[in-house]
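[job 4417] fold queue: 2 targets
>>> target A
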Amino acid sequence: MQALIPSSFFTLIDADLAQVGTLIQQGLNTDVALIAYAAQHIARSPEQRVRPALALVCAQALGDRGARQQASAAAVDQIHAALALHDNPDLPAEEAPAGLGNAPSVLLGDLLYTGAFRAIVALGDMRVLRVLADA
């Protein structure tokens, strides 16, 4: 999907996007190999960059930049990854961070999902949290 988007799009937000990856890895900092692998895959995989990139560009278009928007973009990416794991727990390892079957995939998806909500709660914006909870 990223190949369809011009590279100039990503240059607008490269520094912010790098910080989003760092936030995801920090939020999932653990010695558990599966979780560490998933964090690295989500944070650094080119195909995973489109959703947080869109969130960052939209924030910039609305005049917002910085840590708040980076945290929101990281949450968007974690929610997407969580839902992808829940919907397709048996994807091959090269297509998903967990090709280990249903139980580990669902647990990893739950961890990502709750991590995203933790990040949104840390922002202190009940309006955003309410929209996510209703979704």
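>>> target B
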Amino acid sequence: MNANQFLNDKNPRVLIEVEHLGVMTVELFPEVAKNTVDNFLKYVNNHYYDGLIFHRVISGFMIQGGWGKNIFPPIKGEFGSNGFKNPLKHTRGVISMARTMNKNSQTSQFFIMHADSPHLDNEYAAFGVLVDGFKVLDEIAQMPTDHMDQPRFEVKILSVTAQLNGYEPSEPEYFL
């Protein structure tokens, strides 16, 4: 399903402030992947992302951030091939959780789609969409990178803050 079907003024939003570039606003969809949203918000509320970088950038695909020393255990992946119904497609602007080959290894890393990537549908937990800041997304995606897709210039996340809009996150269910 298209992300527009899930937009709702009661959904929580996060503001990702990127040094020298501006702010990206992401609306989160608890009705699509509640545990993933709650996990992401727990990292946000603990200021985990503040000062980290977008460490992997592939123009025409995605930008990835959130790599650091995990402070919470992994959660179960909320996507189709893991037995969870997640109808949100990986289209431009959608935010999703990164993971290892283990389908239950989602912790802190996230990626934002720079372009539609249907091969990720049902394989990764999409849980929201960019509603403002596409210019920032495009500027990050156009950064020169090295052979490991790491930007040649640091793309620092100054802060990530939450606007809950009445949403009350639960303690995430961890996969132990």
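[job 4417] complete. Note on B: The helical segments are 30-45, 134-141.
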